[in-house]
Amino acid sequence: MTCDLNLLFFTITIFSALVVISSNNWISMWMGLEMNLMAFIPYISKSKNHFMSQSSMMYFLTQSMGSLLMLFTILSSNMINNYMNIMLILSMCIKTGTPPFHSWLPEMMSKMNWMKGYTLMTLQKIAPLTIMSKTNHSVLLLMLIIMSVLIGAIGGINQTSMRKLMAYSSINHTGWMISCMYINNMSWMMYFIMYTTILAPIILWLNNNKIYYINQINSSVKNTMEKLIMSMMMLSMGGLPPFIGFYPKWMVIQYMINMQTKWIIIIMVMSSLLTLYFYIKMISSYLLMNNSTNKWMIKSIKSSNYSTLAMTLNMILPLLMYINMY
């Protein structure tokens, strides 16, 4: 019964995001966001855990504030168009956890399991980012880009909780998605799809091994092949070439250079180096240490599916893209 209810709420969550994407007026978009909120809260609160109750209340309060601000903006029909764009963007920043309204996202992630946290970092951002892409305020978008990439990079440096670290990584990638909106409204979807695809095998591995803190990674990696695969996944998430994670960032960099906004590119690339630092910190424990494990503690690897997915994403797809470009 619980599985059926989870599937029902998850289906409504997807459907509400599609409602926002297909809507052509603000009221319909607001209704889609409310459907999304009412379906996602019971989806994350099904676990009998007081932490999930806290995260549900936290999510409800923040999303209600964003929805109230959006509704107030829509109903104030006599607003100046520029002011309306600012208010809509700020309301969507509250909903996505974009700086300066980001503090709820890492705290909420730290109280959720990996699969529901993955939904929060990916699916729950589709509707607000769609609404944000329909607005137009270049100066505010530039400020959000800079704050997102810097706070997402700096906030994850001293984190030991893997869930908070992935939340700050999501904030950093949100900044890159907003930069796609600044240059081309539709290109953010491509970045979002690639980010979601790269993140999936990492979340599956962390969930299967029940890893919640950095010091648990070393004892969870069992052989050299798994070390190699996990290293590729983390470095790809940080956007290191020649892995597939570098491709969407390369696309943004090319667009930004053509638009003569090189100073923003410098900030974004430097922030990516900081995110690479804490990704390398995660994998360095099992790459640089020669750990020993008793034979009776070694479990058979049941992760062949996400291992194959990670190898395909990070080695084969970049080669195909390079061939197609030249």
Give an overview of the whole structure.
The longest helix is centred in the first third of the chain and has 26 residues, at 50-75. The protein has one domain (80-325). The N and C termini lie far apart (53 Å). It is globular. The protein contains 15 helices and no strands. The chain has helices spanning 2-22, 26-44, 50-75, 81-96, 104-109, 114-121, 126-133, 138-155, 162-183, 187-208, 217-220, 224-238, 246-258, 262-287, 304-325.
Please outline the helices and strands.
Blueprint: H1 2-22, H2 26-44, H3 50-75, H4 81-96, H5 104-109, H6 114-121, H7 126-133, H8 138-155, H9 162-183, H10 187-208, H11 217-220, H12 224-238, H13 246-258, H14 262-287, H15 304-325
